[in-house]
Design a protein that fits this description.
globular; 61% helix; single chain
Length: 293
């Protein structure tokens, strides 16, 4: 029995797991502080903060179709706490480190790696346009692809993963879409994949195999790393022109196409089915019978 003014309990998710409630502003602020500390080490950790913010909105709204029914004032303290915690630590780090902290990330945003499929696309674009316009077109295409992948991943990942699943979706979309790629960047995706519930034969397992193919292709393509003073043995001189310039971009392109195909095929549950699965187990499993008089 609920007392007057109490919030009703969260409805169970698929498999009986309860949906995580909107975190209070204190916990959200602490999460923002931790994300800001990660940002001080690696700027792209800000994607975790963006993923948490998106997850708060989506989980509180219980899906895309019910966002309009959510009492938005409940979300403001959590989102404000997350933003404030991040702003304090990240702002302090930038104030201490100065512009040098962001310089390398800014330069990398204008680069296209040799092992990226975007390198081939930029070469083709150069046949029609000259100067930095080709790079700008590639960056715009990468942003559009990242948004598309993020939407497909958030839509297609099975429910029950909570905030980690949404954050993993954003990070994976960035890894697969961005033109500047290096094998150790994939560690970001692997760290978050470990937090997403894994079911044998499910979509998450398939994403793990795709990420493994991508990491392996980049790992072999960038041997021996990026050391300019390393002398490659004569018998291995073929690795860079064959693997890094040819095999790695091909594997990454195939993995991206397969990712899109996999997530498009992974259709979300129908509204009626989702509504039934949101009921308690005893209510959802009760047979539909008429009233006996």
């Amino acid at each position: 029995m609920l007392a007057r003014g109490d919030d009703p309990p969260e409805p169970p998710d698929h498999g009986g797991a309860t949906r995580p409630p909107v975190p209070p502003w204190q916990r959200a602020a602490l999460a923002g502080v931790l994300v800001g500390l990660g940002f001080a080490v690696k700027v792209t950790i800000a994607l975790v903060g963006l993923g948490l913010a998106v997850a708060v909105v989506l989980r509180a709204g219980r899906g895309w179709r019910r966002l309009r029914d959510q009492p938005w004032p409940r979300l403001f303290p959590a989102l404000a706490g997350l933003a404030a915690g991040f702003a304090v630590t990240a702002g302090t780090a930038v104030a201490i480190g100065g512009s040098a902290m962001l310089r390398q990330s800014s330069q990398a945003s204008d680069m296209v790696s040799i092992g990226s499929p975007w390198r081939v696309i930029r070469t083709i674009i150069h046949l029609a346009v000259t100067g930095p316009a080709a790079t700008d077109i590639v960056k715009a295409g990468a942003v559009a692809l990242a948004v598309l992948l993020a939407v497909l991943l958030i839509r297609g990942l099975p429910p029950g993963g909570g905030y980690a699943a949404v954050t993993f979706a954003l990070v994976l979309a960035w890894l697969f879409a961005w033109p500047y790629v290096l094998p150790w960047y994939d560690a970001f995706g692997w760290a978050l994949l470990a937090l997403v519930p894994l079911a044998s034969g499910g979509v998450v397992e398939a994403l793990g195999w795709l990420l493994l193919a991508r990491t392996a292709a980049l790992g072999f393509g960038y041997l021996p790393a990026r050391q300019a003073d390393v002398t490659v043995p004569a018998g291995l001189g073929w690795m860079q022109p064959v693997i890094r310039h040819g095999v790695t971009p091909l594997v990454l392109a195939a993995a991206t196409v397969w990712l899109v195909f996999l997530m498009v095929r992974q259709r979300p549950s129908a509204p009626g089915r989702r509504a039934r699965e949101d009921l308690p187990p005893e209510a959802s499993e009760a047979p539909a019978r008429g009233t006996i008089r």
